[in-house]
Amino acid sequence: MFNYIIAALIGAMSAVLANRNIAVYNDGFRPVYTEYLNGNMDRKTLATTSFAVSIGLVIGFAFTNSIAMGIVIIHTYLLMGDIIGTWFPDNKKGLILSAIVGALWGIAVVTFMSSIQAFFAMFPVNFLPQLAGVADYVVATFAVFPALVVAYQNGVKKGIITAIVTLVGYMLVARFGVFQIGDFTLALNAPGMAMLIGTIVMIVFAVKTKTDAQGADLTNIFSANIDVIKKNWFYFAIMGGLLACAASQCYLTTDVISGPLALKGSFAEAALVAMVRAIGYIPLVYTTAIVTGVFSPAGSYFSIAGGLFVAAMGLSMPMEPIVAFLVGALIMGLEIILLGTIGSLLDKFPALRELGDHIRDAMSKILELALLVGGFTSSFAIMNEVGLGSLGPMAVMIIWMLNKSAKKPMLIPLAVGPVVAILLGIVANLIKILGLAVIV
Amino acid sequence: MLKIVVGGALNKNENAELIEKYGNGQVEVKVMGDLQAAMALKNGQADYYFGSCQTGAGGALSMAIALNGMSKCVPVAMVGKVLSDEEIEQAIKDGKTAFGFVPEAAASVIPVIMDVLLK
Fold it and tell me: Per-residue pLDDT for A406 more than 90?
């Protein structure tokens, strides 16, 4: 019941923020608002643009990943919030309608996600446990991504140094990271700590990077926009609280790495990943916000990382969601207060802005490969249920290759593993029902 | 000589290589941060802007749209929607100078765009 309420509130808030022209989630849609606010674009065009840039993502990215992971990815709520909010006129009636339709969308998402689980569970071959295996290698390899970021920004040599530090860090923490304090055993989490060590090395290299890119004094030019965002701090604080609360209860995730980690109960690692990812999004989210005066309903995701940190503390119910809400609201408030300061920092140090690009790039590259490998192994496991194991990897291989060579790719690379695994789950059931299964 | 900047968020170097390859020696390609690239387009230091991101319309184009206006920008390949060769040609004729696309479509849309630009 609680999850329906939270989802309805998130859906409603997100639609209202878009309706009042305060915040939209799609980073590419935010700049379009400049045209609208300047009067160069009417509401109808704004609404159609919003639909055009977001609907493909809702279906092709948000839903496929949510189903494969078994946890709702944040895009499912917030991209649709953009569409709903812009679709209604920005007057009182539009505001109320946005809130209602947004809330209904939130409820619909939760209903869909829980019924799809129940639906698959009715099948003769329940493949959901094997399907979750798609994310296995994401969980196993996420710790190495800072090395890739360093390689992008500072060359392969420094990338290798970072990789070695990360791997040695992993071994040392895994071997010596268990402390006995009286009756209490404290075991440091090896992959999480390894990623943290790698991240520190990454930041050190980034700070030392000399770049000839010229800065731009955006923050001063657009200081009026920052004031507009600050004026609405209260809405953002509530939104931050809701998102953090939802993340702490595994009702939503920001990405395909921290989602599976949180589902496995590894909240500390999930929080770390979400935090580094949030750092990666600062330049894109803050810069688009500063030049447009329209922020993101999720800020730069720090409140969600905060919610996961709260979950890692292992508080009892109902304290946990309450504390998560407060922490999330506080963090989002801080983001708003620091928006201008961080903006000037980015203006002065273009290398930090580049670091953000490289973090996003590295994360998506690692995800792509990890989900592909996970797609191979989980497809094998699913088809093995009907004695036809190799059919799984064969299907993944051919679809990956065909998709790659198609002039118009059908699937984003990230989605190939999860989508094929879901389809194979259905195929496996057909095989079973038709009596074609090979008895092992 | 066409001056082209590569901004956006993902696969900048890969995109630059493709542009170079299909530019037949008639282009000067520079990889930049998305903000710098968008500024270069705005103040005339570059003729065209290319960018990619996971969605084809988010980080790929956001800074270009913010500084140059939507009228200069076109997402040629988004998740679930890739423009046809004719639509791409029309967009360029309509005065679009910034192109956004998903990385997996780069190999198919860059040759088409370069073809039209070099005509």
Answer: no
Cβ atoms of B77 and B83 within 8 Å: the answer is: yes
Residue A372 pLDDT: 93
The count of domains in chain A is 2
A8 inside domain? yes
Question: Using CA atoms, how far apart are residues B7 and B61, in angstroms rounded to an integer?
Answer: 8
Q: Which of A27, A34, A357 sits opposite B58 (nearest CB)?
A: A27
Structural domain contains residue A357: no
The β-bridge relationship of strands B73-78 and B98-101 is parallel
Q: Write the CB contacts of A48 (distance below 8 Å, at least 6 apart in sequence).
A: none
Can you tell me the distance from the alpha carbon of A95 to that of A92, in angstroms, rounded to the nearest whole number?
Answer: 5
What residue numbers bound the domain in which A231 lies?
Answer: 2-123+213-348
ipTM of this complex: 0.74
Q: Is the predicted pLDDT of residue A84 greater than 70, yes or no?
A: yes
Nearest beta carbon to residue A31 from set B11, B62, B104: B62
- pLDDT of A384: 92
Of A56, A288, A350, the CB nearest to B81: A56
> Contacts of residue B60 in chain A, CB cutoff 8 Å?
28
Mutation target to probe the A interface, by most A beta carbons within 10 A, among B5, B6, B36, B41 is B36
Domains defined along chain B, listed by start: 2-118 (3.40.1400.10)
Specify whether A233 is located in the same domain as A332: yes
3-state secondary structure (DSSP) of residue A318: coil
In-domain check, residue A417: yes
